[in-house]
Amino acid sequence: MNSAVLFSGGKDSVMALYHALNNGDDVKYLLSMKSENDESYMFHVPNIHLTDLQAEAIGIPLLEARTKGIKEEELDDLLDAFKKLKDLGVEAIYTGALYSEYQKSRIERLAGEVGIQVISPYWHVDVEEYMNLVIDSGFTVILSGVAAYGLDEKWLGRVIDRKALAELIKLSEKTYINVAFEGGEAETLVIDGPIFKRRIEILDAEIDWDVSSGTYNILDACLVDK
Prior knowledge:
Layout: E1 2-6, H1 11-22, E2 26-35, H2 51-58, E3 62-67, H3 74-87, E4 92-94, H4 101-114, E5 117-119, H5 127-136, E6 140-146, H6 162-175, E7 186-192, E8 198-210, E9 213-225
Parallel strand pairs: 1-2, 1-4, 2-3, 4-5
Antiparallel strand pairs: 6-7, 6-9, 8-9
Helix pairs in contact: 3-4
C-alpha cells in the first residue's frame, strides 16, 4: 500500500513510520506540518526544522506544509496537505496518535474527506510497554521540551534510556505524569535508530528555560555515518 506518515520527528511519528515499514507498506512521503505558533493544538513545534535532516537520514522524501497554527484554522492547511498526498497516489496516512482524541478525530475527518485511510498503530497502547518498545527497538530519543512538575532543566537534551525511563516511572507514581508524555509533559526528538541510514549529530544547542518549562533548541546539526 502506498502510504505516508504524519511526521514531527518525535518518538511517536517515528514509531508509526517504523510500524508502517515493518508492515510492508511502501512509504512514499513523510508529511511535516511546520507551525508558526508555538502553542499549536495540532502540531509538534520544538525542533520541527530537523525533520528535513531526519528525512534525509532515513531516505524518504519529505513533504512540508506551512501553517500559522491558529486553532481549528490550521486544519485547513492539513486538509490541503492531504489533498496533495492523495494526488500523489497515497492511499493511507500513518499517525503516532496514542491517546489524543482531539488530534486523532480531526485527522480522521480530514483524511476521510479526501479518501485517505488513517492508521494509528499505537492507539491506546500501554504507555510503559510502549516506551520499553521504543528503547528495545534501538531508537535514540532525546527530550526537546519539558512542561511538567518533576521534569526540570536537567532533562532537556537527555536520552530516554532504561535509567531515564525508570526515573520517569518512579516520578509518575508521585506526580501522575504520563511516561509517554501524552499529557503534554514533554516533547521528543529522534536522532538515530534502525531505520536511520545515518545518525544525527547535534553540533550546537541552547536551553530556553522559563520558570517551570523549557525547550532544548538545536541550532546546528549534521548527518554522520554509523
